[in-house]
Design goal:
By secondary structure, this protein is α/β, with parallel strands linked by helices. It is 44% helix and 15% strand. The two termini are 42 Å apart. The structure holds pyridoxal-5'-phosphate.
Amino acid sequence: MAGRNFLFVPGPTNVPDRVLRAMVVPMEDHRSPIFPELARACLSALKPIFKTATGSPILFPSSGTGCWEAALTNCLNTGDKVLIARYGQFSHLWADMCTRLGFEVEILETPWGEGAPVERYLATLAADKTHRIKAVLLCQNETATGVTSDVAAVRQAIDSAKHPALLFVDSVSALASIDFRMDEWGVDVCVSGSQKGLMLPAGLGVTCVSQKALDAAKSATARRCYFDYSDMVKSNATGYFPYTPSIPMLYGLRESLAMLAEEGLENVFQRHSYLAAGVRAAVHEGWKLKLCAAAPKWYSDTVSAIMVPEGINGAEVIARAFRRYNLALGAGLSKVAGKLFRIGHLGDLNELMLLGAIAGAEMAMLDVGVKVEPGSGVAAAQNYWRKNSPVSEVKSAGSKAGIAA
Ligand SMILES: Cc1ncc(COP(=O)(O)O)c(C=O)c1O
């Protein structure tokens, strides 16, 4: 097909040209005397992304799933009990992994479309007088349903229950797009990956571990080898990795972290929230459709899961968009298969790119029989973006002066 593919799944996201260029490098010796410059540049520039002064960022040659496994096997003993709320396919998969690795899992079943049930986390932890629960697991942004949860509130629940459990947070589709605060929220392990807000290809598991988690790892007996934190931390301290790292990915990461720093992390969050609001205007005001997210407090700024009307199969919208318009939309997964399609709006994106996705989704919906008003989603998003700014008024004062000049 002529023209470019429009990639609007919620990861992998578009890799900026600058990052692609940075990755085109000859192979080099990962044990050379100059290699530590690259490794240290990446690891230190990740600290502000996790908002941590005391945590240790770790890079595994994996995807986010590897970091889920690392969190469990490094910090826990096989058979330990963990607590997790399940409200979408990714929280489901993490819970399933816990069982498969031999942990005891207490699941807080939560309707898909809702976020972390903070009161139930609190009640469960408060009732756990003997502290059998060793880790609380939480998916910050449930990519399957487009729902963002309040990590700080879950931290407060753990504190109010005076519970010593570790807190593991999946920030795979939030990190570097939606605010995440490792130190302030007392997160012990943050799990993420390269192919979302970090604007890289898939292939790096990007995680960060607190000192408390590293201390727990010293005596934890679950079996691990490839994903051992202590091997990694020891090697990283000398500027190296315990095994061969993907050097092009590290060059790409260094570049993407530079881009995020240039834009300013808070501006990156603001841009995501502004772009997401435009997509939601298309869904609600234009198409008169509903999101899977059940209430505004859960609306995700990185992905919108859009419910298709009764009698329409969401998979047909996605197939039509892909085959006819070269537009990749996210599928409905497991329980919500066929009921929705997703527009990913994270990473290297602006208004006009998203208007392409909205226009394509609109055409695909019309083609398969969804009764939306032609042009309505595009117009609603345009109106939102024309009337609003990607940076807050205070922050935009300088740029407004720039426009006037
Ligand atoms: C919230 C969330 N957690 C975990 C994963 C799994 O990550 P990966 O596919 O990088 O292994 C994903 C993937 O999309 C995700 O969205």
